[in-house]
Write a structure and sequence with these properties.
By secondary structure, the chain is of the alpha+beta class. It is built from 6 helices and 4 strands. Strands 1, 2, 3 and 4 form a 4-stranded antiparallel β-sheet that branches.
Length: 159
Amino acid sequence: MEEKQKKQAGNGNEKGSSKRWIVLIILCAVIMVGVGGAVYHFFLPHRGQAQGNYEESLIPEYEYAMDSFVVNLAGQDHRRYLRATMIITYHEEKLKNEIISRMPEIRNGIIDILRSKTMDDVQKDNSTLEIRKQVVQEVNSIIKEGNIEGIYFTEFIIQ
């Protein structure tokens, strides 16, 4: 009789264990479906959006790497330096020749912008974004044959 009770007790544990596995498998499947739906919704292009993204990707983007700038930061003690290296991006190939021919004016304008910054200006949040906008405006005011699209810092060191 005791053996019969032990077998029944053992069978009960196996049934509970198999139910746990089934619940676990179903839970994993639900999670996988949720993750798949999120990936589809957030990362894959949807109908109507795909055309706009495709057309934008057809526009070639050109780059021009500038030499580094080393300037004193504005302020009471002129012991702080900023070293910045930038890349100019543009969509029209013909701009390269104008950028090269007007490089002394472009560098002068960028140096004026960088030297006007104080230590507080370059350390606050989004300071590089603000500087990039100012540099783009300055360069676009200098060149005549089109507009540059952006400036990217490849180096921005404060010492």
